[in-house]
Write a structure and sequence with these properties.
Elements: E1 2-12, H1 16-24, H2 29-32, E2 36-44, E3 48-57, E4 60-71, E5 76-82, E6 88-99, E7 105-115, H3 122-150, E8 151-160, H4 164-171, E9 184-188, E10 192-197, E11 201-211, E12 214-224, H5 229-246
Antiparallel strand pairs: 1-7, 2-3, 3-4, 4-5, 5-6, 6-7, 8-12, 9-10, 10-11, 11-12
Amino acid sequence: MTDGSLGHQAVVDAAPDVLYELIADPAMAPRLFPTVLHLERTEGSDTDHVLQRWVIAGDSIRTWRARRTLDRDGRRIVFEHDSPRPPVRWMRGEWTFGHAPGGGCVVELRHDFRLGDDGGRFAEDLDRNVGAQLAELKRIGESLPRLAAATVSVRDHTLIRRPVDEVFAVLVQLDRWPGVDQVHRLPLPGNRLVFKQGEPLVVGSWWVAATADGAEVALEQTVVAGRDREQLAADVSAALDHLVSLTS
């Protein structure tokens, strides 16, 4: 067994409260961080919960769970991994967001961990990955006003007179949808499907719900720069029409 600790720090030209919300709010990360596909609270309250994270790792999707405790007033987030993958036996971390002396925010991220005997290069890899994560947070945090102004979301829905299971089965069939080789898709319980693609960064969610007349299908897409609302509304409408045609 080997115990270790790593601490990282970055100074970001943004308000501490803003950066705290970027990390605390599960809805924010998929829209801003390129490798984050989806975050979902699986149990607990707003301030003490289990959060499942899905991230894009090359052509695959990795997932893990962590318990988080949020202290909004203190701008502090503590997390502990649930059943971490070997060689990690245990890992805990803490984010803090404080005022920098010259303005902006000092972001600190600490990890404490215990490794098995086959720890290998875990500490070196963690050091490199966390450094890259904070560099990305700095880039996004300092660009947030521009990104927020350029972000567009559209939601639309339609009724398909088919059973919910049949409609959702068609929705998740990759070979029925053009261009999905460039899209990362994640089916979720409750007949939901989330997806993400880059350049421009697009995140979206499908919902399929049972009604007395068949399946109510909703689609929401958010684009971070690169498309106006009219274009995005046309894309959402076309995707719904395509699903209707596939289930006719």
